[in-house]
Specification:
The chain is an all-alpha fold. The chain is built from five helices and no strands. It is elongated and about 60 Å long.
Length: about 120
């Protein structure tokens, strides 16, 4: 007979494997790019093909109730500087795609590391 602890461990292991497979599929099937396009379209309020810091702050403020943690301006500014890899004070779609892919890859790496 399998113990309750063993069943819980197997369930947790299976959940982690499913999450890894989902992230791999997202990366393989270019779904990360689709996510980036949708996200970019929502944040680019001025429809000028770039996101500035005010648009990113607007986005986080709009979705603050959807988040588990409170996001302040300093976090948003830091996130902006990370995504704005060439320090142009603008995030274009190419940068957004690269960032979203990197986030999924980082999550996959984290899951693999904790095996």
């Amino acid at each position: 007979m399998i113990s309750h602890t063993k069943l819980s461990e197997n369930k947790a292991r299976r959940k982690k494997e499913l999450e890894k497979e989902n992230i791999k599929r997202i990366l393989r099937d270019n779904e990360a790019e689709s996510i980036a396009i949708i996200l970019f379209s929502e944040i680019d309020l001025k429809h000028d093909g770039v996101i500035d810091i005010s648009e990113l702050k607007w986005f986080f403020k709009k979705h603050k109730d959807d988040m588990d943690v409170k996001i302040g301006d300093s976090f948003i500014e830091e996130a902006f500087s990370v995504i704005d890899s060439d320090n142009s004070n603008a995030i274009d779609l190419k940068k957004m795609k690269a960032f979203i892919k990197a986030m999924f890859q980082a999550q996959l790496d984290k899951l693999a590391y904790t095996d």
